[in-house]
């Protein structure tokens, strides 16, 4: 490592102000700090600091996504061969999916990080690590056969208009990954919904509808089993199908404390309660499916665990997080059941609550302020 | 005994190098008074280099509050007046003549003294600056009457000195100090002890005070925590606070007539070979503490604790309000893939490192920042170590956007930068939170004056 360090130290002056490549300073710094935690020491304030930093935080989230990602790759292959009426071993399925999904990941990271580096340089800041997570989330929430150019445009749109125009990481209102998906959904609906898109290279005669797609048209006869839905042997976006592996990711986020249990819990609670209400109403077959089944269908679990918990776009106060999560759950099921144009409500529910999160926080903080003012009044009257 | 307050939120950072309970005379020949220890003080010198001084002789005063004098802790000669950039006064260094001559400020029966007499004596002798006020943590305003006075009788910071040991055998002076303070307020004097650890009779048998006990992780010993539970500050209100060894200094002034700051300083930290207590006066040089007693690596010497202390030079001077010196290793090294490795042996509050599996391990921590500065991303983290009914992140952001009304509404009067030290330590974004809060307090103080 010494040799590598020496090499970096030797190149460093070229990238400092006045050097040959000063315009690439942020990029250089990003790679340098990627390899080595910098030698910066505390200058003011507390003299010792926690070993945790943004890179550590983000890499844990990526790690939590890995089970769903690996399964997603396998499932892409499995569904493909299933539609052809073939059965193959685990490795064949996985490799087929791997070569389908890898380009998505590469395009997502290349476009997104490229823009991030550019903006960091313009702002003369260090590159924020937020896109490490967004960049892997995006391939997981799109259909396996999405044209790469569409993905590239969506990522560019999400990073520039979803994030950088607001001031970059930490300032964005909308979840960048969902912004990309929403962009795709409205710009290229033919590639983002319907029966055809969820299975790679499927035989035309084979129905590729997701459980949500079937539920929407009232087709409950060929509904997949609960077992298949929970473990994820169903068509869908790359990473969303296996509730089981998403929950393993959730466990990683909860143990490390990086994902908010308040948000996760309340999203599931909100979805469940809404499902129950529909059960009571019971006006049609869709309303009658058991409330808990909603939680393992579509992108609900994935959204609850990985999207709603994005700390930047969620409510920031602990109390606000309960309201925020609960309303996401409620809205997601409401949209699913009521709105025929959108088979999956999770994406729109989260984006909607992203907008309302600051308002929720405002009222939570306001109640704290009122409590303080009340104390002043009490002291004044007591005197 | 009245209520026990259980502080639940907070964090004890377990470090190596706790001071053994042995006391050694320091025999320092150099002392310094540092105007930078006093927030908002604009010093005007009264002596020149080479001047002869006694303990209690004025060295400088505050330009904007000219009744507040800062006096020499020891008799001898002014050896150096050190100035920094823009001629900012940094240190007034005094070389002791070993005689301990002190000016006599006269003794009298405390009960017979009026508030004015007491204030005058404290100001003239230079004892007054030991009394500070909240909000802002500046030296108390002599003309003002605080609604109450707080004495924190334990320190919960990492490797904190044991106040029980520090006051041992000084019961009479401590009580005299309390009696003096009780003349300065119409309200209560709160003496706040640790529910289990405080055993000294000096504290437990103190009269004229309300004793309350606290327990729980740091910052349970912080004065803001005590104030928040016992007598919260509203806008416009002022509370004073004094540390126990300084209460003794106050008592001594009235019992002996002398400015005698004899106190214990704990030498702590992983790099100290024999961590222990030193008996000395305020502002002593750390030279005789650390020479031959610290390890050979690159070191950082801190006056105070690792959370809130000031970085001083290798042979610098103990700060006016500090009762502890901490020596830890500097952390200027690169670490290959430090963020990606499992990180066994590293200390972290975050459970993304395995440190949480060994909660009782004591660490040798250095000054490495462990990352780069970032935007605020994580939420709900500061709240875990911040035992106030205040939204820390929202308050920090209010300061950053310089919104004074919002700062007030969010409770900036109730806290001090030291209360945010733990937030700063565990901050994923590596921002200087204590500095931000101090800037906010300065902004408000400027606006109010």
Structural commentary:
The complex is a heterodimer of chains A (383) and B (449). Chain A is globular. Chain A has helices at 2-15, 25-35, 54-83, 90-123, 130-140, 148-162, 176-187, 211-216, 226-231, 243-256, 261-281, 285-288, 291-296, 300-307, 318-338, 346-382, and one strand at residues 36-37. Chain A is mainly alpha-helical. Chain B has two domains: 4-256, no CATH class; 373-448, no CATH class. In chain B, helix 3 (171-182) crosses helix 6 (244-256). Chain B is globular and about 65 Å long. In chain B, the strands form four sheets. A six-stranded mixed beta sheet of chain B has the order 1-13-12-11-14-10, with helices on both faces. A six-stranded mixed beta sheet of chain B has the order 2-16-15-19-17-18, with no helix packed on it. Chain B has a four-stranded antiparallel beta sheet with strand order 3-9-8-5, with no helix packed on it. At the A-B interface, strand 1, helix 3 and helix 16 of A face strand 20, helix 10 and helix 11 of B.
SSE topology:
The complex is a heterodimer of chains A (383) and B (449).
Chain A: H1 2-15, H2 25-35, E1 36-37, H3 54-83, H4 90-123, H5 130-140, H6 148-162, H7 176-187, H8 211-216, H9 226-231, H10 243-256, H11 261-281, H12 285-288, H13 291-296, H14 300-307, H15 318-338, H16 346-382
Helix pairs in contact in A: 2-4, 3-4, 3-5, 3-10, 4-5, 4-6, 5-7, 6-7, 7-16, 10-14, 11-14, 11-15, 15-16
Chain B: E1 4-6, E2 23-25, E3 30-33, E4 43-45, E5 52-53, E6 58-62, E7 65-71, E8 76-83, E9 89-96, H1 115-125, E10 132-134, E11 148-152, H2 163-167, H3 171-182, E12 189-194, H4 201-204, E13 210-215, H5 223-230, E14 239-241, H6 244-256, E15 263-268, E16 276-280, H7 287-290, E17 299-303, E18 310-312, E19 324-329, E20 335-336, H8 392-400, H9 404-409, H10 421-426, H11 433-448
Parallel strand pairs in B: 1-13, 2-16, 11-12, 11-14, 12-13, 15-19
Antiparallel strand pairs in B: 3-9, 4-6, 5-8, 6-7, 8-9, 10-14, 15-16, 17-18, 17-19
Helix pairs in contact in B: 3-6, 8-11
